Amino acid sequence: MAIEWDKGFATKDSHIDEQHQQIFRFTNRFESVAQQEDPDLHEVESLLSFLNTYIQNHFRYEEACMLKRKCPAAQKNRSEHIAFKAYLSRSIETYRTEGYRKSWAKDLHKKLEDWLCNHICRVDVQLRDC
Ligand SMILES: [Fe+2]
Ligand SMILES: [Fe+2]
Description:
Elements: H1 14-34, H2 41-68, H3 74-98, H4 102-122
Bound molecules: fe (ii) ion (2 copies).
GO molecular function: metal ion binding
Organism: Pelagicoccus albus
Keywords: Iron, Metal-binding
Protein backbone atom coordinates (compact mmCIF):
# COMPACT_ATOMS: atom_id res chain seq x y z
CA MET A 1 0.00 0.00 0.00
CA ALA A 2 1.33 3.41 -0.96
CA ILE A 3 2.39 5.84 1.73
CA GLU A 4 0.65 9.18 1.72
CA TRP A 5 2.07 12.31 3.28
CA ASP A 6 -0.28 13.97 5.73
CA LYS A 7 -0.10 16.62 8.45
CA GLY A 8 1.14 14.05 10.97
CA PHE A 9 4.48 14.25 9.12
CA ALA A 10 4.63 18.05 9.00
CA THR A 11 7.78 19.64 10.45
CA LYS A 12 6.72 23.25 9.73
CA ASP A 13 9.81 23.59 7.51
CA SER A 14 8.51 23.76 3.95
CA HIS A 15 11.79 22.54 2.38
CA ILE A 16 11.95 19.50 4.63
CA ASP A 17 8.26 18.71 4.13
CA GLU A 18 8.71 18.94 0.35
CA GLN A 19 11.77 16.64 0.54
CA HIS A 20 9.80 14.10 2.59
CA GLN A 21 6.96 14.22 0.04
CA GLN A 22 9.42 13.63 -2.77
CA ILE A 23 10.95 10.65 -0.91
CA PHE A 24 7.43 9.24 -0.40
CA ARG A 25 6.69 9.59 -4.13
CA PHE A 26 9.83 7.69 -5.08
CA THR A 27 9.23 5.05 -2.40
CA ASN A 28 5.78 4.51 -3.94
CA ARG A 29 7.31 4.24 -7.41
CA PHE A 30 9.76 1.70 -6.06
CA GLU A 31 6.81 -0.25 -4.62
CA SER A 32 5.09 -0.48 -8.00
CA VAL A 33 8.34 -1.70 -9.59
CA ALA A 34 8.82 -4.24 -6.77
CA GLN A 35 5.36 -5.73 -7.49
CA GLN A 36 6.23 -6.55 -11.10
CA GLU A 37 7.42 -10.03 -12.02
CA ASP A 38 9.92 -8.78 -14.55
CA PRO A 39 10.68 -5.12 -13.91
CA ASP A 40 12.80 -2.94 -16.17
CA LEU A 41 16.20 -3.07 -14.45
CA HIS A 42 17.12 0.36 -15.80
CA GLU A 43 14.20 1.71 -13.84
CA VAL A 44 15.30 -0.18 -10.74
CA GLU A 45 18.80 1.34 -11.14
CA SER A 46 17.55 4.86 -11.61
CA LEU A 47 15.12 4.66 -8.67
CA LEU A 48 17.85 3.25 -6.43
CA SER A 49 20.31 5.87 -7.45
CA PHE A 50 17.78 8.66 -7.04
CA LEU A 51 16.60 7.43 -3.64
CA ASN A 52 20.12 6.96 -2.36
CA THR A 53 21.37 10.39 -3.49
CA TYR A 54 18.22 12.26 -2.56
CA ILE A 55 18.00 10.67 0.87
CA GLN A 56 21.68 11.45 1.61
CA ASN A 57 21.20 15.10 0.59
CA HIS A 58 18.01 15.32 2.61
CA PHE A 59 19.72 13.91 5.71
CA ARG A 60 22.56 16.43 5.37
CA TYR A 61 20.13 19.33 4.99
CA GLU A 62 17.94 18.25 7.88
CA GLU A 63 20.88 17.60 10.23
CA ALA A 64 22.25 21.10 9.53
CA CYS A 65 18.82 22.56 10.13
CA MET A 66 18.45 20.83 13.51
CA LEU A 67 21.92 21.96 14.60
CA LYS A 68 21.24 25.53 13.57
CA ARG A 69 17.99 25.59 15.52
CA LYS A 70 19.52 23.74 18.49
CA CYS A 71 16.85 21.06 18.23
CA PRO A 72 17.04 18.55 21.12
CA ALA A 73 16.45 15.71 18.63
CA ALA A 74 19.58 16.59 16.59
CA GLN A 75 21.78 13.81 17.98
CA LYS A 76 19.09 11.14 17.76
CA ASN A 77 18.24 12.27 14.23
CA ARG A 78 21.85 12.00 13.14
CA SER A 79 22.42 8.55 14.67
CA GLU A 80 19.22 7.14 13.13
CA HIS A 81 20.30 8.56 9.75
CA ILE A 82 23.71 6.87 10.08
CA ALA A 83 22.08 3.51 10.83
CA PHE A 84 19.67 3.89 7.91
CA LYS A 85 22.41 4.89 5.46
CA ALA A 86 24.33 1.76 6.51
CA TYR A 87 21.22 -0.37 5.86
CA LEU A 88 20.68 1.26 2.47
CA SER A 89 24.24 0.69 1.33
CA ARG A 90 24.17 -2.95 2.48
CA SER A 91 20.94 -3.47 0.58
CA ILE A 92 22.31 -1.86 -2.60
CA GLU A 93 25.46 -3.97 -2.26
CA THR A 94 23.30 -7.12 -2.07
CA TYR A 95 21.56 -6.06 -5.28
CA ARG A 96 24.94 -5.44 -6.95
CA THR A 97 26.34 -8.83 -6.00
CA GLU A 98 23.27 -11.06 -6.26
CA GLY A 99 21.28 -9.29 -8.98
CA TYR A 100 17.59 -8.44 -8.90
CA ARG A 101 15.28 -10.60 -6.79
CA LYS A 102 11.68 -9.81 -6.05
CA SER A 103 12.17 -10.67 -2.37
CA TRP A 104 15.05 -8.17 -2.18
CA ALA A 105 12.90 -5.40 -3.68
CA LYS A 106 9.98 -6.18 -1.36
CA ASP A 107 12.23 -6.18 1.72
CA LEU A 108 13.85 -2.89 0.74
CA HIS A 109 10.50 -1.28 0.01
CA LYS A 110 9.07 -2.41 3.35
CA LYS A 111 12.10 -1.11 5.22
CA LEU A 112 11.88 2.26 3.42
CA GLU A 113 8.21 2.61 4.20
CA ASP A 114 8.41 1.49 7.82
CA TRP A 115 11.57 3.41 8.62
CA LEU A 116 10.43 6.66 6.98
CA CYS A 117 7.02 6.71 8.67
CA ASN A 118 8.44 5.83 12.04
CA HIS A 119 11.46 8.16 11.88
CA ILE A 120 9.65 11.20 10.48
CA CYS A 121 6.71 11.15 12.86
CA ARG A 122 8.87 10.44 15.93
CA VAL A 123 12.13 12.37 15.30
CA ASP A 124 11.88 14.81 12.36
CA VAL A 125 8.65 16.35 13.62
CA GLN A 126 10.47 17.58 16.70
CA LEU A 127 11.60 20.45 14.48
CA ARG A 128 8.11 21.88 14.93
CA ASP A 129 9.01 23.15 18.36
CA CYS A 130 12.50 24.46 17.55
FE1 LIG B 1 15.55 12.68 9.97
FE1 LIG C 1 13.73 13.61 7.28
